[in-house]
Design brief:
Elements lengths: L1 E6 L3 H8 L3 E4 L2 E4 L3 H14 L4 E7 L6 E7 L4 E5 L2 E5 L2 H6 L5
Antiparallel strand pairs: 1-3, 1-4, 2-3, 4-5, 6-7
Amino acid sequence: MTVIATTAVPDHLRGALTRWMIEPMPGLYAGTLSARVREELWSAVTATIGDGAAVLLHPDDNEQGFTLHTAGERRRVPIDLDGLTLIALNPTETDNETVNP
């Protein structure tokens, strides 16, 4: 199963995604895709994302059983921590924070 979640994307991109996947709620797409179709759809998403954001989750042979990709200006940043993918919330804010003694 492949899942793509989008926020504030152009209508033509939504149409392209619904050709291959179902949209059970606005901005959420799910389907069983081949690797080639998944890669082509993700390429279309990243090329036309604009000011929006998107997340792609698909099965993979790793500890978590899936791989996560993000795109767009509003995205959250995935980070690798000892082989596990975690999400950094506001990474620029945490980089600039200092701990008061």
